[in-house]
Amino acid sequence: MFVIKDHHTYEQLKQITSPGNVMADECLYNHTYTRLGGKADFFVTPETYEEVQEIVKLSIKENIPFTLLGNGSNLIVKDGGIRGIVLNLGRLAKIEVEGMKLVAQSGARIITASQKALSYSLTGLEFACGIPGSVGGALFMNAGAYGGEIKDVLESAIVVDATGNLLHLSADDLDLEYRSSNIPDKGYIVLEARFSMEEGEYSDIKAVMDDLTFKRESKQPLEYPSCGSVFKRPPGYFAGKLIQDSELQGKQIGGAQVSLKHAGFIINLDSASATEYISLIRFVQDTVKAKFGVNLEREVKIIGEDSVG
């Protein structure tokens, strides 16, 4: 049973999209890979680009806080949740192939996009076969793995800007760098990505994807909720190696633990709170800094409010 704290906003949102796409007082731990996070005032899942535009315009007109939430694979939501509108594009998940181009809506999983490319014997997205994020999230952080990254194959994107306008941008317009883009600074909401692919042999592409999947499953603690790799790779070092050499594997705060399988992962071992998870991240950063003089920069994004009381 949800609690509607703002009936005016609730009714306006239901006029923009289907009432079934608007949830009030929704628990966000249901929508993150870490299984962390408090409640959103409104959790909205639009079905068209126009609905996304109208929701952005409504938030501006009514001065309602607005947050975009992908599939929560590289994200920690604090225990106090998020005020205002939380937008999730999971219903925008269509993937199509047009010749040598793969066009994917932002709510589709980037893993699914790589599998679609494989089915058409298109090469270029093999590196993404184990990345658990959405297409929109992959562009947001220029996701990458095993020597490949989004900037290698992205041709263009359709976004909604901070004022609700629809823009068609080239990949160069997004300033894609190592695990970053200008998407957060510009306030863009990615709706669609167009990837430039190359023709390949199905068996060769599948062999690469099978190998990468094996490496991922054998080295990463996929049996537990987590946010994936917590830290960016510091210049000249490997984050996981620094954490391991700091003897932090197995370190636990509450239900959060530095993985024994891969030191670069922090897992939700036992009903951790976001506060515990974030505290462990900071403890790891402080320890590595004290021991090696290296600053570990977070790759994972932290949003939301602290719990009150």
Number of helices: 8
Strand residues, percent: 15-25%
Main beta sheet: 5 strands, antiparallel
Spatial strand arrangement across the major sheet: 6-7-13-11-12
- Helical proportion, percent range: 25-40%
SS-based class: alpha+beta
Distance between the termini: 23 Å
Question: What is the number of strand segments?
Answer: 19
Principal-axes geometry comes out as globular
Round the mean pLDDT to the nearest integer and report it. 95
Radius of gyration (CA) equals 20 Å
Oligomer: single chain
Low-confidence stretches: none
Q: Which series of helices and strands comes N to C?
A: HEEHEEEEEHEHEEEEHEEHEHEEEHE
Commentary on this structure:
With 309 residues, this protein is an alpha+beta fold. 28% of the residues lie in helices and 25% in strands. The strands form six sheets. A five-stranded antiparallel beta sheet has the order 6-7-13-11-12. The longest helix has 19 residues. The radius of gyration is 20 Å and the shape is globular. The protein starts with 6 loop residues before the first helix and ends in a 6-residue tail after the last strand.
Condensed summary:
The chain is of the alpha+beta class. The chain has helices at residues 7-16, 49-61, 110-119, 135-140, 183-186, 202-219, 239-245, 274-292, and strands spanning 22-27, 39-44, 66-68, 75-77, 82-87, 95-98, 101-105, 122-123, 144-145, 148-149, 154-160, 166-170, 189-196, 198-199, 226-229, 252-253, 256-258, 265-268, 301-303.
